[in-house]
């Protein structure tokens, strides 16, 4: 098997695909955003609930997708709980830049999200990895209910 | 898994020899031989087609139907010669009935826009659930403009059209019936002869989307008795950007032009423009001359093949592939109609089609993954996407073996 494939499908990715964290609907969400990847038709719905200080109190997602999009969304939900809007958007920028190759992956800042770095060698899969993240950005910065990665 | 024999048993079709005509098939991908199984999306071109296009570009090019000079005549002869080849290839009764388009999509849009002008709010258009988006959206647009209603014939669980439902949906209001000959997503071969007969009894005009059929079987539009037949060059070993609309002459005569411009007119003044004769009335602007030349060359190439043997070879590939696939745990074939072209749409356990596509790609295997521009089909079978291996006559059983090796890797990664 090629090293590049093993780099893409790291154990963390496979684990989060098999057993996605925070998977399900959130009844009392403040924001519900649907993300669509028109390339493959994958859909994902992201639910975000803020606390009284504006921090992300809870976040969930539902939908069907490839291992990369599911694992990426799962890792994201795990990471962003408790973050402020600005912190979450900063994280979005970091992950975006790493996925698109504008920034080298910093293992300290990325922590578990570093598992997504293998996607950089697969340009056709970057949209899969960023689907949940774009939904997050939309949820935090707009009042739109739908986004598309294209 | 059993090892493939060198050639399909009992087949006198030398795919291994024919394969050498296609230079791109010698490409290496990630250090491995290319295994090209995405032929339903676009097939590859033989050297004969590539050379014909290059010869035209080097020696024959000028604008067609315009000049009195030498090259203009050469280019016109090459372009119109291609039209004659197409006419013979599909057995149309006259060369006026062959309109060059950019592809199947433009051919269908032409009919939907032009014939669609006669539609009104009481009229209906009937399509099937199998259609590619290009045989859905142009009709939706025609319905939006005219107030007509789009009806869709449902599918049975094997991926074939429910003919009883199709018949029920045909009414005296049905003006146009637009159906695919072969489904791109599932490979189902529709009984188009029967469907055209039924449509005509109801008084409807018929259009067949033949994009997937032309590379697999001989097409005879006169025997089919359809009003329109659309297909693309690039799915039958010719270049992209060239396609054909066959249309019955008496209908084309009555239909308004699709696009306005040069070539399609006889005289132009600011008060009164008269249109050119068929087929030029529907070919506004300078056409894709080199594309037409390439299409003519691909027809010459295909005319040298024995289609009975070609079909037997492709059927062998499909049957071999399906049998091999079903040996893998969790494998499921989507589309199991009795009559199928060499298209295998499938899922493998819970592994998403995109992950399958990426993993087999690293083994040099090109397959299509996704919704195949047929989202309603995916919805019908309750899958977000499928993986699709589609075979051409130049594929071999060892291509299937390489696909299976790639899929086995996917199973290893995901279990």
The mean pLDDT of chain A is 92
In DSSP terms, counting alpha (H) and pi (I) runs of 4 or more, how many helices of chain B? 14
- Characterize the main sheet of chain A: 4 strands, mixed
Strand content of chain B: 15-25%
Low-confidence stretches of chain B: 1-11
Overall shape of chain A: it is: globular
Oligomer: heterodimer
Distance between the termini of chain A: 31 Å
In CATH, the homologous superfamily of the largest domain in chain B goes by the name Type I PLP-dependent aspartate aminotransferase-like (Major domain)
Q: Which architecture name of chain A does CATH use?
A: Alpha-Beta Complex
CATH hierarchy, class of the largest domain in chain B: Alpha Beta
Mean pLDDT of chain B: 95
CATH architectural category of the largest domain in chain B: 3-Layer(aba) Sandwich
Low-confidence stretches of chain A: none
Helix/strand/pairing class of chain B, anyone?
A: alpha/beta
The major β-sheet of chain B equals: 7 strands, mixed
Can you put this structure into words, describing what you see?
The complex is a heterodimer of chains A (150) and B (415). Chain A has one domain (3-148): Alpha-Beta Complex (Sufe protein. Chain: A), CATH 3.90.1010.10. Chain A contains 6 helices and 4 strands; from the N terminus they run H-H-E-E-E-H-H-H-H-E. Chain A has helices spanning 3-8, 11-18, 67-80, 85-99, 107-110, 126-141; strands spanning 31-37, 42-50, 56-64, 146-148. Chain A has a 4-stranded mixed sheet with strand order 3-2-1-4, covered by helices on one side. Chain A is globular, with a radius of gyration of 14 Å. The model of chain A has no long low-confidence stretch (mean pLDDT 92). Chain B is α/β, with parallel strands linked by helices and 415 residues long. In chain B, the strands form 5 sheets. Chain B has a 7-stranded mixed sheet, sandwiched between helices. The longest helix of chain B is centred in the first third of the chain and has 21 residues, at 70-90. Chain B is globular. The two termini of chain B are 19 Å apart.
